[in-house]
Design a protein that fits this description.
heterotrimer; A alpha+beta (336); B mainly alpha (294); C mainly alpha (273); A: 336 residues; Rossmann fold; OB fold (Dihydrolipoamide Acetyltransferase, E2P); 2 domains; 6-stranded mixed beta sheet; 5-stranded antiparallel beta sheet; 25% helix; elongated; B: 294 residues; mainly alpha; MetI-like fold; binds adenosine-5'-diphosphate; binds magnesium ion
Chain lengths: 336, 294, 273
Amino acid sequence: MAEVKLKNLTKRFKDVVAVDNISLDIEDGEFLTLVGPSGCGKSTTLRAVAGLENPTAGDILIDGQRVNPLPPQKRHISMVFQSYALFPHMSVESNLAFGLKIRKKSLKHKSEKVKWAIELLGLSGFEKRLPKELSGGQRQRVALGRALVLEPKVLLLDEPLSNLDAKLRLRMRTELKRLHKKIKTTIIYVTHDQAEAMTLSDRLAVMKDGKILQVGTPEEIYQKPADIFCAGFIGSPPMNFVSGERVPQVEDKNAMVGIRPEDLSISLAETKDGIVGRSSVTETLGSDNYLYVDISDLLISVRLKPEEKIPEDKPVWLVARKEKHHLFDKSTGRRV
Amino acid sequence: MSGSIKPSSLLLKLKSNLFTIGFFIPAFLYLFSFFVIIVVFLLKFSFSGNVPLLHLLSVDEFKAALWRSFWFMGVGTPLQLVVGLLLALLIQQSFKGVGMVRSLFMIPIAIPALVTAIIIDLLFSYPLGPINDLLLGRHAFFPQIVSLPVNWSGSEFLSLGLAILGKTWRDMPISMLILLAGLHSIELEQYEAAKTMGARSWQQFKYLTLPLLTPAILTILILRSIENWKEFVFPFVLAPAYPLLGVLIERLYHVEQNPALAASVALGLVILIALTTLIFTTITKMVRKYLVRV
Amino acid sequence: MKILKFVLIGVILFFIIFPLFMMTKYSISDRESIVTGGEYPEPFFPFKPTLEMFGVLWSRSDFMKAGLTSLWVGLFAVAFSLLLGAPTAYALARFRIPGVAILLFFLLSVRLFPDISAVIPVAELLLSRPFSLLPPVVLVGLAHTLLALPYTVYIAKGVFESIPRDLEEQAFVLGAAKSRTFFKILTPLALPGLGAAAIYTFFLSWNEFIFAYFLTFQGTETTLPVYLLRILSWSPQKNFISAISLLICVPVIIFTFLVQRYMREGLTAGAVK
Ligand SMILES: Nc1ncnc2c1ncn2[C@@H]1O[C@H](COP(=O)(O)OP(=O)(O)O)[C@@H](O)[C@H]1O
Ligand SMILES: [Mg+2]
């Protein structure tokens, strides 16, 4: 177990700045997620920690030791790849034992560790199978087990669930979370799926264009997004944004006002401070119903209370309590 | 396209099939008739001649040629595999100018085999030639290695060696391409995973590259051994005094005017190749089985 | 590691280029540079480079005749194998043919014979009546068609498969007959790809030695490679033989670069056979 520090890390590929001067402290035993749209530099950051990319500038510290000059195997990390990168010609057992074999561990240690991983991940009965004879979820678990048997101080996971179907993805999410509780390794997790990031992480770091915009617990980021991008990226359906001049309660007319769908109340009668619009379709996401309201050029999503029904194409008034408004500077996008 | 077949649609179907057959038949017929002619002629000749196929082994000329061909195949095949592997590994990862290097590596296959053989003959000519110049230490930059010029074509070992060299030089792009395709089928992430688990370059080669390349390697062993068994041009030009099976066939046909015996040897060669292919395919299956379960 | 790699690439490039360089050097060598009498080593660049040999070849009728023969044989092989192969490839690419795997096997099986074995029956057949009445160009062209046809079918099949089916169906819907569709609509679209097959065939024929050698063993009309071999038996000078070799190689090298992609496909198609 270990803490990881990134200090002013930058990685440039010819003309692309993939990672742009980021600093991040990850605590011992923490589950930290790098989340952001595809191409924002998450994988590159992770690969720099693993030692697969050489940073252009900045330092990486694991347990206080600067690891920049160290090759991957000396960093006490393990990595799980998006494609799993299982060795297609080796059985589950051999895949699990590969790292230990390279590290010349004793036969006894090897078989104990492999057995441990097989039990931990529920793979018993599949020891002799080849990767191609496994289901997606099983492959995923072999990849995870292969990383865990090396007892890494830091476990690096690059979109490990993105190749699974939706149902399996949810199940593996829970399994991963349970696993982390059990082994308490520091985990750096990369995903572009904000829901995954929210449910799994102790803290998350929202990235965009190679920069970290905000670091915090899921609640902090959800409730106090530091940036208009974070506000829009985290949460589903996403936060609504309305220009300040259209919201009567807001004084700063130059600000952008963000309101989450669940913070809006809706009425068919004219409401004080309400924004008027026309009701449009209702979307049902299982337990929750969301109504879309047309306010001239914008579609605003509103979470309806259970049993609340609004007919289509009727004038409606929307209002949110003032403390639920998130104000952002229009030019910088930062929270004001 | 399915459903009940009415007479009119049946007719239509027949018409369209006739069209298909009409398209397909000419090339098929051409190749197939040659196939039949070759088989029939070879069999007819080799059983009508005064040395039936089964008695070939009692012909000294044949035995000597068979032995030489065997060595030519046995030495040439692994050599060509290793050279192909080296070339493929060198251009496996892309770098600036890799396309150019690959194109240059392709040149030998463009040169006619006969021309290649003749250039080698010129380079290794006796008593005066560039290689002999070099070995005799006549250039300031190269140490003297021999005191008398080497008569390459006068020695069985050297002349067949040159033939193997020529064959290897000209055909190296073929093995390279097949191995390159095999290498590119191994994902980069697999190497990276191995790297994070501590595997060094040679361990990656041993545990990943080599086993995953086995199918390509076995393909090459089969193709190359066939090619080497049937080689004609290089030994014909570079080692005429020490005929391989291919050269023997030509000599029997043209010089000794014995088409029957030539056909017998030709058929023998076909059988040898079939046997070699069979053996290698069996080995392939066994190795695959072994590799699959580590 | 990186340095070692580039050094190795350099060494291999040297071994690839060196023989070709020497061939070129010999072809422009003056007498002193090749007839040394053992008094000094052959220079790595001629003392007095000269294009004399090319002039000599230009004025030699036997060389020019061999060149023309090669050209005609190649063109014959191209025309004949495209004429036979393109429709077959089209049928393979478009129509479901029962037992197509077996048919394909037979299509390719003729190439399973080593050339040096197959050439005996082919020569026996083509050099006896009535075939022997045909001009040598046609005989060698027929043999080269035999060699090239499987590759032509293979390449052309890929070409037709890459042309969207919709196009033809559109034509059918508009009422065109199948044969008309093939000739009027598909052939022009397939032309660049078929051109590659043609080039491949031409140079297969241009480089081919064994069949040309056996089929023109006695006559005077022969292809360039066989001509080159006949010259060799007179023990000619290095510059003369090298100039001929160079002239045979140059077009092939140029075109190999141009149609490299198809070359690669052709070569790996050989791997599948
Ligand atoms: N090896 C590379 N060479 C050049 N550009 C790269 C390389 N790897 C990543 N990039 C670029 O860096 C940026 C960040 O990539 P990446 O870290 O993979 O994003 P993410 O994982 O967040 O989707 C992208 O614009 C990508 O195109
Ligand atoms: Mg990524």
